[in-house]
User: Which sequence fits this backbone?
């Protein structure tokens, strides 16, 4: 048993999980501290308000409101659970988007733009194809595929400029994000997809259910009644598993990872590094597009079309989802759920206390900050292991290892323009 | 000799320095006398550089003490070392490429007024020093534009500018031509005559015998002994260094060259950093069953030539024929079907360090039907193949095929690359500095493998900076200077001095002799 | 024309100073992707300072008496506050990338996420809405320089020079230009500058000469944070009527592009900032630009969608980067954590 545990402990993935958990815990503790400070400084809240805030941050998912005495109550809440899964769907996919790019050595901060392009394509197809003449399930599939395609094409742009012109992909992604934000607004401005039926909603696009198109519930509404959940979450999980297989079992995955880990060596070995960079960004873009498709095809979500000044948070939140999961596609499923849980917590805070939902953004940001040096946390964990169990190391036939060679230091990924 | 009144200016006593998993210096003692040239001899990885980094304040030792003039001193950083008059020319020059020579010399010891740089005074002082020791430099040139030899003179001037009296030279001759080496030796003797004390790190016995007064030998991090050069000879120093008798010559029968495998005609490759070509109008042939060696000082176009042959860089003109096919514009992968390539930089090109050993073993071959089916990798086949190579080429690692390449020692990383490349069984093997940074055992092994491949009828193109390797391993020597092939020499008839003249560009043969 | 020049300057100057912020970080070896976040944070700090000071009534008398010297002092104080808090905020980046050797891209991104989250959180608590504004009046009435200060009457003309560069301008613009010049000299002509640049090019060499690379990188990033924080406030004051919304619409990233386009050199950066400022100005006020003063609003009459103009700065950035990237020469060691043990 102990041996088993030792083996588990030595595994790199175990340490990644621990590093992520530590990041999460510190992030939530920091959130708690901010809540207390703000609570003490605000006469509406006070110490009891602060305590309620903390209880909600940690247990918001199980919050069931307030009882007659005004105290917070907790228990299984099918609405919260179902909504968490519903909101996790796009987060899992944008998380996968960022993770796939990461594995190829690219930082896809362009997920928001790809998400927007996916949104536009999906909505236009889902609302534009007449449901009188085409079966709605077929429209659904076309709209979903269209969203992925639009995202993929948009992801290609930073991929292309990175591969062929060596422009830092982060900068290119940011620019494509803002271009997308303006482009999408432009496309919907004056279009007849704007919701003119309900007079308070002209800022929004019709729900896809307006055209009879929406994702099947797949029985999930029976398990989580009164929630927005639908079959999208199952599709997202299936996609995550497919991506896992792609990255770990196929030659394409091998190529992508080789390019990410050492582009020079990949090129030396005859792997088309440029093609792979573009391909990786295209896959990443398709995943972000899929995230948007599944979110808006649910039939009960509306898109605020005049979006030229804001980028969708779902895109950016793919970054912490991927980081916390150490870019493992399976782990992304869980970290995506965790992030959407924070969303739910934010809602509970706003509904039940005088706090606002931005506190969960703060928590997420702190977690990202910490996951930036999850490697350091891993190193600390390693160091601890060495001091604790020096005997545990197998006596290997000690190859005469010279000190770490000098040339290793130079292989960072410097050189491109930021 | 002045050693009679033995006065130690620097003493390093019982120094121990550990890195995770390895003791780089284990109880080492080194005593440097005033005005002597003291050589520090040892193989790659013996701990010489670590010891000098301790003296220079870059590392803190776990145990031991350093004394100057008999007094214990603490050297916590290079500033402390400089204050004690210790200066160092590092093996890899510590120069800022985009700064001028003058800026590099004054950096860290600037003269300022209200924080503003006063370059005029500095210039006067540097010019005087440069004049006095015959160290010619162009003060306003950017470091990236000057030759390696001049860069070394800049490094020496940096020490002199700081009025250092203890000068450390870490493998200073590796980048110089034989003639430049002679000049450097003369300069070092000049310094010693003026009372400066010199530590000279090297693994080259000839140089040590000709310039040093005493030698301290290290082996695998341990102190072996200190001897006077006048009381010893090369063979016994070599035995001390390696711990067993070493065969200094490579055993091989004369080559029996067959048909041309690689034909290069008028190949030019543009440079990335300069306007002129990195490789200019190069023509040569490599035939089956011979080792053709490209010799030359680092940075004269050898790397670019190899990149051009392997397809990593595009040529601007010329033709390359491999096994009868024109590959001038072929992709890297197409070229790989007839060419093995042991790259210069094993970390940059040779290995994906974060991949496992087995993944690295199939870096070029994972697409072959043997290793994949319908795009899915056959993990079992890969494992089997890797295990065979590991056994056959004696690649040692912690966990066999699943070891992460990064965690392996440099020697075994190189062995893994050699195993992979030789097992691909191609008519042409391009090997660039295949023994760089390795110990004698590994060097002997790799030399034997290359000769064996030659005898199997492969054409081998060897690029090396080590003159000993060039002279002992090759069947034909081509010398590159400033991107051109300036000489073709026969190792059995030429001398190191003659080779040096070609390498320095002082001598070149007529164009008509090329590619014969 | 006057309007065009003034508007261009209003956008170009913050771009220029924030791009210089990027230079200081990158020349020391740290990629400062967090410029955007630091700007947001600096803008918030400055606006909050203005808001609270107004509420405390400190400058109320000066305002009532039209004592514009005191009001300009007030603005300078706010700039200082923004700079100090920007510098403090950037310490998070220095700490992660220097001490913890974290990935600088991710570290910077984290700050970019953290800044708007924190700022919105506090704005909601302080103002109970999503925007923090001045407590009274607007930035023009409090901080803008007007010709009346110099004794000109409402209908008197200051001449082309006066009406372009003095009337209806902000002192902050000129302070930024002055700072830009002073800091460029610091970077190139002083010991500090030489050492800082050596750390971004070859930290191993700097270390071997006794220069403390960690300290230098902290210095570079902190200066960077101060400039970006100040730039953020100046941006908010001159273009957003001194309001903080937790957003600067990618301005920090545009500054990074300006830095790359300017090849990490101050003079080129000043030039490219003007160019980008012009595009940003067109994007923001294409409908009121009257180029040759004949009352024809050319850009608005071309019939091109306003969405296109708004997209223009980002589109141009991408295209300009595409054309200049081959020639650009980034500091060699930027983005690579420096580890003393590893030489």
Assistant:
């Amino acid at each position: 048993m102990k041996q088993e545990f030792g083996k588990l402990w030595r595994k790199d993935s175990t340490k990644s999980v621990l590093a992520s958990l530590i990041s999460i815990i510190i992030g939530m503790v920091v959130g708690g501290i901010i809540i207390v400070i703000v609570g003490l400084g605000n006469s509406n809240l006070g110490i009891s308000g602060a305590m309620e805030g903390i209880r909600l941050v940690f247990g918001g998912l199980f919050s069931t409101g307030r009882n007659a005495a005004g105290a917070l109550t907790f228990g299984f809440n099918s609405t919260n659970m179902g909504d968490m899964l519903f909101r996790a769907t796009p987060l899992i996919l944008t998380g996968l988007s960022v993770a796939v790019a990461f594995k190829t050595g690219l930082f896809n901060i362009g997920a928001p733009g790809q998400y927007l392009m996916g949104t536009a394509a999906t909505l236009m197809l889902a609302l534009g194809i007449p449901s009188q003449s085409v079966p709605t399930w077929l429209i659904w599939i076309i709209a979903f595929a269209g969203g992925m395609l639009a995202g993929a094409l948009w992801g290609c742009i930073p991929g292309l400029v990175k591969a062929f012109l060596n422009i830092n992909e982060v900068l290119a992604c940011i620019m494509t994000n803002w271009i997308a934000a303006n482009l999408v607004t432009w496309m919907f401005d004056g279009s007849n997809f704007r919701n003119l039926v309900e007079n308070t909603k002209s800022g929004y696009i019709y729900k896809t259910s307006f055209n009879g198109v929406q994702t099947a519930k797949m029985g999930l509404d029976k398990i989580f009644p009164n929630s927005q959940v639908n079959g999208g979450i199952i599709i997202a999980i299936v996609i995550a598993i497919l991506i896992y297989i792609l990255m770990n079992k196929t030659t394409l995955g091998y190529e992508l990872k080789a390019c990410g880990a050492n582009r020079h060596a990949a090129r030396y070995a005859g792997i088309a590094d440029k093609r792979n960079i573009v391909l990786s960004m295209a896959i990443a873009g398709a995943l972000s597009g899929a995230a948007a498709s599944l979110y808006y095809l649910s039939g009960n979500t509306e898109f605020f079309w005049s979006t030229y000044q804001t980028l969708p948070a779902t895109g950016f939140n793919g970054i912490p989802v991927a980081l916390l999961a150490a870019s493992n596609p399976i782990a992304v499923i869980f970290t995506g759920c965790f992030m959407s849980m924070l969303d739910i917590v934010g809602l509970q805070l706003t509904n039940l206390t005088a706090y606002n939902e931005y506190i969960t953004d703060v928590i997420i940001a702190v977690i990202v900050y910490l996951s930036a040096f999850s490697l350091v946390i891993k190193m600390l964990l390693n160091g601890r292991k060495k001091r604790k169990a020096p005997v545990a190391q197998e006596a290997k036939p000690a190859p005469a290892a010279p000190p770490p060679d000098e040339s290793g230091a130079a292989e960072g990924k410097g050189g491109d323009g930021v | 000799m002045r050693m009679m009144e033995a006065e130690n200016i620097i003493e390093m006593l019982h120094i121990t320095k550990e890195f995770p998993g390895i003791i780089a210096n284990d109880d080492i003692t080194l005593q440097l006398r005033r005005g002597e040239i003291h050589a520090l001899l040892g193989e790659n990885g013996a701990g010489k550089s670590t010891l000098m980094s301790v003296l220079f304040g870059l590392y803190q030792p776990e145990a031991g003490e350093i004394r100057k003039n008999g007094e214990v001193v603490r050297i916590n950083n290079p500033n402390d070392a400089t204050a004690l008059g210790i200066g160092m020319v590092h093996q890899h020059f510590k120069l800022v490429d985009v700064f001028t020579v003058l800026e590099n010399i004054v950096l860290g010891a600037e003269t300022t007024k209200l924080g503003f740089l006063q370059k005029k005074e500095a210039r006067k002082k540097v010019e005087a020093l440069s004049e006095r020791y015959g160290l010619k430099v162009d003060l306003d040139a950017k470091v990236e534009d000057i030759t390696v030899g001049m860069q070394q003179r800049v490094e020496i001037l940096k020490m002199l500018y700081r009025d250092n009296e203890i000068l450390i030279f870490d493998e200073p001759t590796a980048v110089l031509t034989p003639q430049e080496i002679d000049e450097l030796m003369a300069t070092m003797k000049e310094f010693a005559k003026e009372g400066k004390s010199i530590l000279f790190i090297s693994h080259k016995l000839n140089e040590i015998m000709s310039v040093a007064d005493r030698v301290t030998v290290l082996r695998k991090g341990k102190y072996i002994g200190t001897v006077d050069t006048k009381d010893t000879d090369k063979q016994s120093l070599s035995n001390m260094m390696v711990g067993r008798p070493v065969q200094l010559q490579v055993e091989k029968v004369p080559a029996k060259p067959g048909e041309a495998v690689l034909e290069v005609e008028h190949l030019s490759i543009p440079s990335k950093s300069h306007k002129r070509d990195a490789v200019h109008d190069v023509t040569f042939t490599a035939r089956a069953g011979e080792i053709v060696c490209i010799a030359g000082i680092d940075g004269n176009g050898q790397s670019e030539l190899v990149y051009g042959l392997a397809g990593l860089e595009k040529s601007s003109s010329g033709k390359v024929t491999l096994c009868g096919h024109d590959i001038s514009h072929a992709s890297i992968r197409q070229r790989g079907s007839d060419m093995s390539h042991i790259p210069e930089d094993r970390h940059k090109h040779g290995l994906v360090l974060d991949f496992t050993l087995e993944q690295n073993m199939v870096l070029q071959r994972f697409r072959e039907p043997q290793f994949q089916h319908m795009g899915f990798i056959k993990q079992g086949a890969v494992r089997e193949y890797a295990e065979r190579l590991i056994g056959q080429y004696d690649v040692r690692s912690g966990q066999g095929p699943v070891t992460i390449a990064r965690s392996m020692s440099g020697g075994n990383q190189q062995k893994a690359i050699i195993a992979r490349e030789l097992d691909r069984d191609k008519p042409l093997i391009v090997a660039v500095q295949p023994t760089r940074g390795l110990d004698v055992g590994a060097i002997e092994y790799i030399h034997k493998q290359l000769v064996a491949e030659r005898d199997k009828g492969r054409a081998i193109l060897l690029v090396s900076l080590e003159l000993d390797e060039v002279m002992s391993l090759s069947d034909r020597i081509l010398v590159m200077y400033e991107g051109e092939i300036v000489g073709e020499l026969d190792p059995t008839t030429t001398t190191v001095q003659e080779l040096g003249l070609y390498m320095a560009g002082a001598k070149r043969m007529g164009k008509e002799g090329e590619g014969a | 024309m006057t309007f065009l020049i003034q508007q261009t300057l209003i956008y170009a100057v913050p771009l220029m100073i924030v791009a210089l912020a990027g230079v200081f970080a990158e020349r020391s070896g740290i990629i400062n992707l967090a410029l955007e976040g630091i700007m947001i944070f600096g803008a918030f700090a400055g606006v909050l300072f203005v808001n609270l000071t107004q509420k405390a009534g400190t400058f109320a008398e000066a305002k009532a008496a039209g004592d514009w010297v005191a009001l300009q002092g007030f603005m300078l104080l706010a700039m200082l506050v923004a700079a100090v808090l920007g510098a403090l905020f950037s310490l998070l980046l220095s700490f992660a990338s220097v001490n913890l050797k974290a990935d600088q891209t991710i570290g910077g991104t984290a700050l970019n996420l953290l800044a708007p989250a924190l700022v919105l959180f506090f704005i909601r608590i302080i103002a109970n809405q999503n925007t923090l504004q001045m407590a009274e009046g607007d930035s023009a009435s409090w901080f803008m320089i007007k010709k009346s200060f110099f004794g000109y009457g409402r209908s008197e003309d200051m001449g082309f020079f006066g009406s372009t560069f003095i009337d209806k301008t902000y002192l902050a613009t000129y302070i930024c230009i002055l700072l830009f010049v002073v800091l460029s000299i610091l970077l190139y002509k002083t010991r500090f500058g030489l050492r800082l640049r050596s750390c971004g090019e070859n930290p191993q060499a700097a270390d071997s000469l006794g220069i403390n690379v960690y300290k230098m990188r902290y210095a570079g990033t902190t200066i960077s944070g101060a400039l970006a924080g100040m730039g953020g406030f100046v941006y908010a004051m001159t273009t957003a009527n001194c309001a903080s919304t937790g957003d600067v619409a990618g301005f920090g990233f545009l500054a990074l592009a300006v830095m790359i386009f300017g090849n990490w050199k101050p003079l080129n950066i000043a030039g490219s900032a003007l160019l980008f400022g012009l595009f940003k100005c067109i994007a923001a006020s294409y409908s009121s630009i009257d180029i040759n003063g004949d009352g024809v609003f050319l850009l608005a009459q071309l019939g091109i969608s306003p969405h296109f103009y708004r997209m223009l700065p980002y589109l141009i950035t991408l295209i300009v980067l595409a054309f200049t990237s081959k020639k650009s020469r980034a500091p060699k060691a930027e983005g690579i954590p420096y580890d003393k043990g590893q030489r």
